[in-house]
Amino acid sequence: MYMRVYVYTFNHQLNPMYRTHHCGELRISDAGKEVKLSGWVQAARDFGGMTFIDLRDRYGITQLVFNMDDDAELCERARKLGREFVISATGQVRERSNKNPNRATGDIEIEVKAMDVLNASKVPPFTIEDDTDGGDDLRMKYRYLDLRRSPVQQNIIFRSRLAIETRKYLADQRFLEIETPFLIKSTPEGARDFIVPSRMNPGQFYALPQSPQTFKQILMVAGMDKYFQIVKCFRDEDLRADRQPEFTQIDCEMAFVTQEEVLATFEGLTKHLFKTVNGVELPDFPHMSYDEAMRRFGSDKPDLRFGMEFAELNDVARNKGFQVFDSAELVAGICAPGAADYTRKQIDELTEWVKRPQIGAKGLVYVRFNADGSVKSSVDKFFSEDALRAWGEKAGARAGDLMLVLAGEAEKTRKQLNELRLEMGRRLGLMQPGDFKPLWVVDFPLLEWDEDTERFYAMHHPFTSPKKEDVARMLSGDHETMKALRADAYDLVINGVEIGGGSIRIHDRALQERNFKLLGFTPEEAEAQFGFLMGAFEYGAPPHGGIAFGFDRLCAVMNGQNSIRDFIAFPKNNMGRDMMIDAPSPVQEEQLEELYLKQVGVEEKKG
Ligand code: ASP
Q1: Is the distance from the beta carbon of residue 546 to the nearest atom of ligand 1 less than 6 Å?
Q2: How many other CB atoms sit within 10 Å of the CB of residue 575?
Q3: If exposure means fewest CB atoms within 10 Å of the residue's CB, which of 3, 155, 448, 456 is most exposed?
């Protein structure tokens, strides 16, 4: 099990006017010392003769004691302190009779001799404790109070450490940290841009970068050799679960490298971050081709914390008279360990689960490989026990396992089986927090077909280099050939989450033009949007490649959590709103006029 262990070394000066120590610092060895602490009142307990205050700051909580017999007036003042008042207290450290083993400072308390109220506080709208009674919206509106809560604060501290360790590691590897502009040019490729009107250029707009992709490539042309940036990126997408319109990447680019160096460098970075921040030593990362990942797991980001690999059953399950299988392009199953004793009800429920529109399967076939060696299935009418055993063999089934089988069109069936595999992983408790299974997925397709617009899109982005051996076939025009083209593109996946992706880039004008043509750009469109990059390629562009990690996501995964929002100091809600500052908001008529944006147009559209 991993643990977040922060060792603070207090080698910086505190201002003695406010404090001699932090609230997480004092131990039994400090007993007898005169100290001064400052912080927030987390809780007060009044026992008549004695008042106890839990004083909190970023580093911890220390108990203060006020004694009626020693100083009645001081004790009275302590009784009046409300939650979240900011105070400073001077007193003597002493051993506690009633120790709190759950707190680092739990062996001691401060016998207070003097106390100043530095600021009062209104009663906070929710409790500022590890478990709070505040709902999402309220906590976002009062984010500064939410951020005082230890679990939230620890996430932000974690993030800070991760950023610092990233900088250390990459600086050691001679990467240069270089900023790229936020006001750039809009391109229709990729996600939707956030647009910024230009006052000085009427009717013209900047866009906020979806990533610094073209700039980092230009930096390689400029001879910078190794670039990185921990950088905000902006994408105006509908906010499906856990997306943020602005998010952070560790963005990198390297010149004169092949895929191997990029992977080795960022595997090194990942191991360094896990080791220094999580205290976890990761083994070398396996590599798996995209095709293999799809075949074995039905996903380009397989969660390798558990098995349940796909078993393809076409040759043992088709043409045995079961119509559903006979008409299917693919029959495939997974073997859920130890689940043979699932009740009828549990299986019915799973069947309903796979039939939900989000999954879209037509039905679910099961085979129980019972602990006593008997085999029982939902298709006993069509398959003998021996036939079912042959399925089990393909899936590595053991006595006690439950095999779950889906059938249909190959690509869809793999997707559905992937969802079912993940669901079974969850139900069987196979996704252990603290267990980290990274892998590189490599050899991605160059292109992705989009049914709606009936055209190919770049699977990674249009600057990704096709594999050398595929260059000649790029303009063949034949759909299947296009689908089969492979790129020097790769993703880092940890526990089923895509942490980052990158590629070796095209660095040659002619090849870049060919790629744009493949993607349906006319030469004029390509020139208008990316002429600057292709122009740069004509002035001695070195071979180069790079990668970007999703920094927010990395924070979440390293903590075994799903929500990136918890690792962002000021996140936006599902509607893209910042609840604290109440943005977005209307602007004044004059501002719109200055920007040549007619408010009347907006009103018409609304109406
Ligand atoms: N710019 C790419 C992205 O944002 C990453 C890369 O290719 O380096 O996904």
Answers
A1: yes
A2: 8
A3: 3
Please name the CATH architecture into which domain 152-283+550-581 falls. Answer: 2-Layer Sandwich (3.30)
**pLDDT higher than threshold 90 for residue 453:** no
- Region of 338 (left: φ > 0; alpha: ψ -120 to 50; beta: rest) is left
**Domain 306-427 falls in which CATH fold?**
Gyrase A; domain 2 (3.30.1360)
Residue nearest to atom 8 of ligand 1 (CA): 547
293 φ, ψ (degrees, to nearest 5): -60, -40
Burial 389-412 (b: 16+ CB within 10 A, else e): bebbebbebeebbbbbbbbbebeb
> Torsion angle of alpha carbons 261, 159, 492, 228, nearest 10°?
-30
CB of 550 closer than 6 A to ligand 1? no
In this structure, the residue with its CA closest to atom 1 of ligand 1 is 213
Whole-number pLDDT of residue 598? 75
CATH top class, domain 28-119 = mainly beta
Q: What residue's CA is closest to ligand 1, atom 7?
A: 502
Q: Are strands 226-234 and 246-255 parallel, antiparallel or unpaired?
A: antiparallel
pTM above threshold 0.85: yes
- Tell whether ligand 1 has an atom less than 6 A from the beta carbon of residue 229: no
Helix axes 344-355, 410-427, angle to 10 degrees: 130
Question: Is ligand 1 within 6 A of the CB of residue 503?
Answer: yes
| Domain edges within the chain | 28-119, 152-283+550-581, 306-427, 445-486+508-541
pLDDT for position 191: 87
Q: What is the pLDDT of residues 94-143, one digit of tens each?
A: 999 999 999 999 999 999 999 999 999 999 999 999 999 989 999 999 99
